[in-house]
Amino acid sequence: MKPRILLIDDEPKVLSALRRQLRELYEIDVHSDPAEALKTIDKTRPYAAAISDYRMPGMNGIDFLSRLKELSPDTTRLMLTGYADLDNAIRAVNDGNVYRFLTKPCERDGLLGNVADAVRQHELVTAKRVLLEKTLKGSVDLLGEITSLVNPEAGERINRVRRYVRYFAEQKGVKDLWRYDIAAMLCQLGTLILPPGTLEILEKGRKLTPEQTQLWEMHPAVAQSLVAKLPRLQSIADMIAYQLKGYDGSGTPRDGVKADDIPLGGRILKISLDYDLARQREKTPQKAFLSLERDLDAYDPELMYYLEGMLGVEARYAIRTLPLEGLTPGMVLHEDVSSNQGALLLCKSVELTKDKIDRMHMFAHTVGIPKTFTVLVPETLN
Known about the structure:
- This protein is α/β, with parallel strands linked by helices and 382 residues long.
- The protein folds into 3 domains: 4-128, Response regulator (Rossmann fold), CATH 3.40.50.2300; 151-314, Hypothetical protein af1432 (Orthogonal Bundle), CATH 1.10.3210; 316-378, Molybdopterin biosynthesis moea protein, domain 2 (Alpha-Beta Complex).
- 51% of the residues lie in helices and 12% in strands.
- It is built from 14 helices and 10 strands.
- The chain has helices spanning 12-22, 34-39, 61-71, 86-96, 108-150, 152-172, 177-186, 198-203, 210-227, 234-241, 264-281, 285-293, 301-311, 354-366, and strands spanning 4-8, 27-31, 49-53, 76-81, 100-103, 317-323, 332-333, 337-338, 344-346, 372-378.
- Strands 2-1-3-4-5 form a 5-stranded parallel sheet, sandwiched between helices. The protein has a 3-stranded antiparallel sheet with strand order 6-10-7, with no helix packed on it.
- Strand 1, helix 1 (12-22) and strand 2 form a beta-alpha-beta unit.
- Helix 3 (61-71) packs parallel to helix 4 (86-96), helix 7 (177-186) packs across helix 10 and helix 9 (210-227) packs antiparallel against helix 10 (234-241).
- The chain is elongated and about 95 Å long.
- The termini are far apart.
- The relative contact order is 0.06.
């Protein structure tokens, strides 16, 4: 497949001449309007190189290449102009990160040589990025596998927590979801320092010894120091460092950071990990949610709102199917109640009172109603 080259010039004759000289070696796209050209940039099919004229109406070449850099940073950028003054050359290099500065008229050999160099530069940049990404992914996968092998409980916890972390990150509208996913994958790396069975003790709601507590509070810092050694992962290491930090400033690290000054990833890990721990201790999602509400100040209020939204009615109610004799005031109908003939008697979402339950008994004797009812039963902690 030929490398793709983008040509921008408001002079049709110049575009035609450039295309004629390059089309045998490259796939060529041409535009006379830089603003329209920007609308066609496809990040999934980046250009290897772009050659732009400097003097164009509406948007000059420097502004175009600067914007192109934002949309397609790996595309090598060249400037072509008949106004070869030093100031323009400096601006082109500094503002547009221009790789080469060409002057009109550009001889064929010089054009072909410079474009070939630009394409090689693009290949070097993209190859380096792909290699880095593969190395990074391999390193993350390896660390995750080591954690699971040495501490299977931590590996299981990672698998459960990842979906919570992704949900919260999506609700917050973050653009770099991969960072949050990696943070979830590596957040338990530091638990390798814990004595065997420590996580099991926590999941059963039992207290740790002072020595176990000290190691537990250290494990995020241990993971942070290891993750920070990997390229491009410093921000992820910071998320991991704050996974035990309360929104109110409680917990570790004890550095005075609180509320929105805590990295968002740390706040997401905190609520995700604590909810997962509560789910292991409690029999139902609603009891787990209510256990977090007992320490409400420790969690980002917006994330608690999203957690309640994720659980829906299960956050505060248990869904049960009960006979008429099992209904009590305070329960909420989860389905409409209709007579055996199909007449609507009570609507869904109505909270039951003694009077309504008495009416249901009356309906049972007069028009006939179902033998069981789906209701929401308010959950409270025992």
